[in-house]
């Protein structure tokens, strides 16, 4: 991590190391998106969850649509995050540390969501998605004060996270009282 921070010390000049670091940081949201895509495939937990749930009719009922949209909106977050690190000269100030901390909370809540999908728990999935949306809003607003492009790159994910939170909450409401078919 210190090599990454050291390479980001000069916010005005992008070097080959900066492009490598941005690629490394991008691996995190890309791997999360790929995991969700795999989970939406045949036999995956997300697919099973969708098959066993009552879904709202105002959004796509295909888990692959949700997984692909998630992947596409997660993809630019690594680059956006590195722009924040770079713009703050390697996390040299409190606002940038807070922004990256909020992004970390977002990553943690995204992991909680994936774990709850594997357990097929509607209420916990809805709460985790709401947490992901809240954290996405928070880190995007923090990014806005540091790097406008990072903020703009995070907006598609914020919009999708809000949609997904509302969608999963509605799935929870529609499925309350129903017995979810066993695995």
Structure description:
It is elongated and about 50 Å long. It has helices spanning 2-7, 16-39, 45-51, 63-74, 77-87, 94-119, 122-144, 148-175. The chain starts with a helix and ends in an 8-residue tail after the last helix. 37% of the residues are buried. It is built from 8 helices and no strands. Helix 2 runs antiparallel to helix 5 (77-87) and helix 4 (63-74) runs antiparallel to helix 8 (148-175). 75% of the residues lie in helices and 0% in strands. The protein has a single domain, classed as Up-down Bundle (Ferritin), CATH 1.20.1260. By secondary structure, it is an all-alpha fold.
Q: And the CATH topology?
A: Ferritin
Order of helices and strands: HHHHHHHH
Q: Please give the oligomerization state of what you see.
A: single chain
| Content-based structural category | mainly alpha
Name the CATH homologous superfamily. TspO/MBR protein
Average residue-wise pLDDT: 89
**Amino- and carboxy-terminal Cα gap:** 41 Å
What composes the largest sheet? none
CATH top level label? Mainly Alpha
Tell me the domain tally.
1
Number of strands: 0
Strand content: under 5%
Annotation field: number of helices: 8
